[in-house]
Structure formats: C-alpha cells, structure tokens
Design goal:
Radius of gyration: 14 Å
Order of helices and strands: EEEEEEEEEEE
CATH architecture: Sandwich
Helix content: under 10%
Number of strands: 11
Number of helices: 0
Largest sheet: 6 strands, antiparallel
CATH topology: Jelly Rolls
Shape: globular
Structural class: mainly beta
Number of domains: 1
Low-confidence stretches: none
Strand content: over 45%
Amino acid sequence: MMPLVKPLAADSEFYIEEGCFVIELASAAEDPGLSIARCRVEPGKSTRWHRLHNTVERYVIQQGNGIVEVGDLTPQAVSDGDLVLIPAGCRQRITNAGESDLVFLALCTPRFLPACYEECE
C-alpha cells in the first residue's frame, strides 16, 4: 500500500437498487480490511431491507435526518454526527425522514464485496 490523497469525485456517484446513491471513497483489493462509501438517500425514500454477511458496517451520519432500523432494535432517529453500528449478518435499512438529502458514510470491515450482500425483502 502506498500513501494516497484522493479528492472527492462527486461526478462518480451512482445509484444502487438498494435505494440510494453511492460514491466509493475507498474500496481496493490492496486495502482489504476496510471500505468507505458516501451514501445519499433522497427525502422520503428508504433503502431496502438487507444484511451483509461476514462484514461489520458502520454509518456515520454527515447531514440530514433519518430513521434507522437495525436488527430487533426499535427504529431510531439519527442526524448529523450520529454513529450506527451494524453487526455482520444483521438486517438493516435507513429512511430519510427530512426535507433534504440524508448523507452518511458507510464504513465496512472487512471491505464490502457484492458477494456479502443479501436483500431481505
């Protein structure tokens, strides 16, 4: 692994069928221990129920207001600066409960791979 400074490439954002827009900030085979994605959910929208096998996920809310549902926990309101810890194999979804975009970082350990994703709907 080499030192790197990687500017945000806002034009690299893409939509995923889970129900949000994503910019992959860090997801490289050379750094298999972690991936970081910037996720954006539009007002009134929710991501689909899903789980990640063998991967722990953390949401760090950057802007907006949402309702997160994780496992058997009661739905929780989240906003700027909040952290959500999602154990491997735990079902989850997040809803934008505000009037502007809900933006959060999704940090996965080990690195997110499509094979770990399972839709739960």
